[in-house]
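In practice, a research group might receive sequence data for several interacting partners and want a quick structural hypothesis before committing to experiments. The following worked case mirrors that situation: the sequences arrive first, and a predicted assembly follows.
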Amino acid sequence: GNSVTQMEGPVTLSEEAFLTINCTYTATGYPSLFWYVQYPGEGLQLLLKATKADDKGSNKGFEATYRKETTSFHLEKGSVQVSDSAVYFCAGGDNFNKFYFGSGTKLNVKP
Amino acid sequence: DAGVIQSPRHEVTEMGQEVTLRCKPISGHNSLFWYRQTMMRGLELLIYFNNNVPIDDSGMPEDRFSAKMPNASFSTLKIQPSEPRDSAVYFCASSHMAGTGGREQFFGPGTRLTVL
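A structural hypothesis for the assembly, expressed as tokens:
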């Protein structure tokens, strides 16, 4: 079945460090791919998305590129801030709108 | 837009009691999803509806769980009887299903359920 695997956390970085959170997918066909962010006590918020191969999603300094050849959608940010501390979820969506989420990666950014 | 609305935000109940969680999706959205989030199991899809019809309820853990969507603007998730292991945060999400490819889901703030 369809699934997403993302790196386990927590990931601890100093402010202004470079961030990469790995995500790979297994799917029949070509899913849409998403990154969501969850701040403490809140629901998930869409961070960025890509709907086809080679698409790059970007938002708030975060980027991820849909790589069909490596079935990956890694999340990157060049310079993290303390306010980026949250849990990040990679997800795939099939043609029937059903999503499959990764297990989440907690990011801690220290000043 | 008000976003996805869930109520109550917090629920504390005793084992054996009936619990009803409510969700109002974003107006115009025709897909609705119920998720459960715990530290041990992460985010789990319980059930989802397209155009008010349940499509996949394979994630509903037991017969104690039931969900309804009587119209496009309202859904309930009911647990009867509740047990301590049902303690979790329950999220409702909605999206607009159109064409091919998954459309982003918009999540509500969640209901934190504690069963004593």
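Before designing any experiment, note the following. The mean pLDDT of chain A is 93. The two ends of chain A are 41 Å apart (CA to CA).
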